[in-house]
Structures are given as structure tokens and as C-alpha cells.
Amino acid sequence: MPALDVRPFRRADRDQLTDLVNTHVAAVVPGVSVSVNTVLSDLERQPEEFITDPWVSERVTLVAEQRGSVVAGAHLLRYRPGAEVGESYRDSGEINWFVCHPPASFRPDALDAAELLMRACLARLARWNVRRVHADGALPAPVVYGLPRNWPHIRAVYEAAGFRHVGDTEVILLARVADLPRSEPGGGVTFRRTVGECGTRFTACGDGRALGFIEIDTALARPERHIRADGLADIGNLHIDPAARDTGLERRLLAHAADWLRLCGVDRLAAYLGEEETERYGLLTGAGFDELTRTDRGWELRPA
């Protein structure tokens, strides 16, 4: 087989690297893909990560190439050691994402490429001499973060390199807006729509106080980045006053949000839950959501 070469990303690699990224995105969330411009922008800065991105001091993208083809890629971040950086990120290095072709009969060298690229990643992280090394799979696309269960080949590469899952697991759900319940008036509850922290907020009010709210983000795709995610939104926040639980209020809030999404032309809504949130899982699946995948967050290098 032709020799593999691991080297820094070049602009001429942009189309092939984007194809690799989109192959991994497509395995997680339907109907979403990213443009070349999106990938290039992500390599330079991540404005949606407004807390952690300013902490980054160095960014490096590496690719594995064989016979002119980019067969694997990884994006590395180095975080500053200053006191202004959060403790868990301070003076750390991260494999922000790692993509590669899975082993296949027509691509028997895929595993070699992934292993060679990972060795190069670890060598770069070692040269940075950071106190902690962690990893993620945060591709520049909505709903893709952590290490989704749909990428067993990436998990195998991480684990072989000594990374261990030390964080939590989240469940990602997706619903067709057409399948969500419709709002019904009455019940002594009124609803108001305002600007929220994570999107448009719908607040349920009764007895002169707020009983709960849901926030819906319909701006998952930044227009200048040309992400193909039209018709996709997500639940940014959902909170119910403990005294108003078991009253069906969550379902009514979801129905009001769904009415708004229909007016927006949004046809799919994503939701995120901790694996332990079984009660809310039942509520959402009963309202029309299906489990899309589970993703494991928080990977740390812990060699044997």
C-alpha cells in the first residue's frame, strides 16, 4: 500500500476534510451537513463557544494523507495556563475532534491511518507539555458533540490511545414538529413569549407567578457558515416549578413552542437529557420524540 503521511492541514485539503466531517455528522443527525466555509471557520475560531474559545492559545489541525487523499483529520486546541481560564481547561490540551474512515474491505489501511494520526496528535500534545489532555468529538454542526455511539471506530482509536470516558452520558432526542402536541387554551394558565437566554422563551403563568418555561433555539445554523440545517431547532432550556410538576405543564409548554415552530417553518426539534433523567425521557418520547443517539462526554488521557 502507498505510504501514509501525517502533516499539518493545508487549504487545498478543505474539500476532502469537509467530506470526512460530513460523513460523521450524517451518522448522528439526519439532514445536516456543513460547508467548506464552516469547516475552515471552525479551524480558526469557534465563536459559539463564547466561554472557552477565548481561552485557546494555539490551534493545530493535522491530516493523514495517502496517495493525495485525506483519509483522517484531527483538530487540536491548547488552553492558556492563566488564572482567567476555567480550572478544568487551564493549561490543558484537547483533541477537539478526530475523524477517519472506518476499517473496510476496500480500505484495509484505514486503521493504520487513524493510529498514525493519533500518534502525531499525542506527540504534539506532549510537546505542548500541558498538565492534562482531554478529547471530544465536537464537530462544527448542530447536535454533534461528545463521542456519539454512532462512531465506534473513533471510540476504538481513543481507547487504544489511552483515553477513558470520565464524564457523563447524554441522550439526544429528535421529533418531527408535526408530531408534537398542539396547544389548548384554558386551565387557568396563560403563556407569554419573550427573549430567553438560549432562544425564544415561552413562560407559563398562573396565580400571578411563573410556573415554568421552555426556550427554543431556532438559530442553530449561523448563516455565514452555510450549515445545511434548515428546519432544525433545539430545546435550550426547560424548567418547571416543583409545585407545578405532575400537572401536564411541560407538555403544554412544548405544545406552545411547537405552534411557534410551525410558524417559523421548523420541522424538527432536538432535545438533550442526562441519561439519568428517565421521567423527562418518558415525557418527551410520549410527546413525539424518538431517541436519536447517546453521546459520551468527557474523555481524558489516562495511559495504563
From TrEMBL:
Keyword set includes ATP-binding: no
Annotated N-acetyltransferase domain residues: 152-304
Xref: CDD domains: NAT_SF
Pfam families per UniProt: Acetyltransf_1
Entry protein name: N-acetyltransferase domain-containing protein
PANTHER family to which the protein is assigned, alphabetical: AMINOALKYLPHOSPHONATE N-ACETYLTRANSFERASE-RELATED-RELATED (PTHR43877)
InterPro entries (alphabetical): Acyl_CoA_acyltransferase, Bact_Acetyltransf, GNAT_dom
Keyword annotations of the record: Acyltransferase, Transferase
Taxonomic classification: Bacteria, Bacillati, Actinomycetota, Actinomycetes, Kitasatosporales
UniProt-listed SUPFAM superfamilies: Acyl-CoA N-acyltransferases (Nat)
